[in-house]
Amino acid sequence: MQNRNKNFNIPNTLSILRILLIIPFVIYYTNDQILKAAVVLVLSGLTDMLDGTIARKYHQITELGQMLDPLSDKMTQGAVAICLAVKQPILIPFLAVFVIKEALMVIAGIFLIGKKKKRPGGSMWFGKTATVLFYISFGIIVFLKGIGVGENQELIVSVTLLSITAAFMIYAFIRYAGIYFDIVRSDDPKYRIDIQEVMDKKKRR
User: Given 3.40.50.10190, 1.25.40.10, 1.20.120.1760, 3.40.50.620, which CATH number is that of 2-204?
Assistant: First the structure.
C-alpha cells in the first residue's frame, strides 16, 4: 500500500495545483483583472518554492514528482509569457527564447528516454534560479500594469527584467546541454531506465 500511494504527497499536490492555477491567471489577465492575476502568479511561485523544499526535507521525492515539477514550471511560464506577449507584442522575442529553449529540452528528454533508454538529469540550481527570476520578473511586470504606471516606464522595466531573465535562461540551457551530453556519453548504470520494467512494476502494484 505504501508503494502504491507514495505519489500522493504534498509536493506532487503542489505541482498539480500550480498547473491548475494557470486557468485563473489566464482568465484574470485576459479580462484586465491584473491585480488578481498578480496574486495568482505569486501563489504559483510560492508552490514552486515549497514543493522542492518539502520533497527534499521529508524524503518525498518520486519519479512522478520529478516529471510534474518541471512540467508545471514550463506550462506556467508558457501561459504567462504568451499572455504578456499578446498584450505587448514587443515582448515576443523573449517568448521566442523561452519556446526554443523549452522545445529543445523536451526533444532532448524524449531522445534520452526513448532512444538511449536513459534518465534525463533532474532540476539543477541554475534551472531553478532561472525559474525564480521568471516569476519575479513577470510578477513585477504584472504588478506595474495593475497599478497603472506610465506605458513608457512599464516598457523599460519589462524589457530590462526580461532581458536578464532571458540571459539566465540561455545560461541554464547551456549548462543543461552539458549535462545532457555527459549523460549520452556516460555508461553509468544510474542513468539507465528500462521502460518495460517500469511498466511491469506498475502493473504488478
Answer: 1.20.120.1760
Domain spans of the chain, in order of start: 2-204
Q: Model-level pTM?
A: 0.68
21-25: Cβ within 8 A, 24+ apart = 21/47, 21/76, 22/75, 22/76, 22/79, 25/76, 25/79, 25/80, 25/83
> pLDDT band at 2, cuts 50/70/90?
very low
Summarised one tens digit per residue, pLDDT across range 59-104 is 777 767 777 888 888 888 888 888 888 877 877 887 788 778 878 8
